[in-house]
Amino acid sequence: MRSSFPRLFAAFLLSVTAVLTGLTGLGLAAANAVIATGRLVVRPADAAALDQLTTAAPALAAFALASLAAAIALVLMTSWSRRLAIGVTATGVAFGIVALVMVMLA
């Protein structure tokens, strides 16, 4: 019984991460679509920055789906769930560090 709590907690954290990442990608895509219509006036630099961020939306969606799959696998206690969860988490941390460095250098 004890070993199931960490597994369920990790699944909860992965599912929360999946939802937040998916909503971030959706928000970027929606903001870009609204600005592309021309009804909302923004500075050209802001529009260009948003356009560059929107290119990451498919990667965010893929990461969100992978996180959700890992969370479901952890709940179902499949044999490969631990490896998938570790892989998704390590990938997220690596991309997060790279993104932070890129933002600091920009």
Walkthrough of the structure:
With 106 residues, the chain is an all-alpha fold. The chain has one domain. Helix content is 85%, strand content 0%. The protein contains four helices and no strands. α1 packs across α2 (44-54). The protein is elongated, with a radius of gyration of 17 Å. The model has no long low-confidence stretch (mean pLDDT 88).
Brief summary:
The protein is mostly helical and 106 residues long. Helix content is 85%, strand content 0%.
Distance between the termini: 48 Å
**Helix fraction bin:** over 70%
Q: Please give the number of β-strands.
A: 0
The whole-angstrom Rg is: 17 Å
Overall outline: elongated
| H/E element sequence | HHHH
User: DSSP helix count?
Assistant: 4
Give a quick account of the main beta sheet: strands, pairing sense, barrel closure. Answer: none
**Number of separate structural domains:** 1
Q: What structural category do the secondary elements indicate?
A: mainly alpha
Q: What fraction strand?
A: under 5%
- The residue-averaged pLDDT reads 88
Low-confidence runs of at least 5 consecutive residues: none
Helix-strand blueprint:
Layout: H1 4-37, H2 44-54, H3 57-76, H4 81-105
Properties at a glance:
single chain; 106 residues; mainly alpha; 4 helices
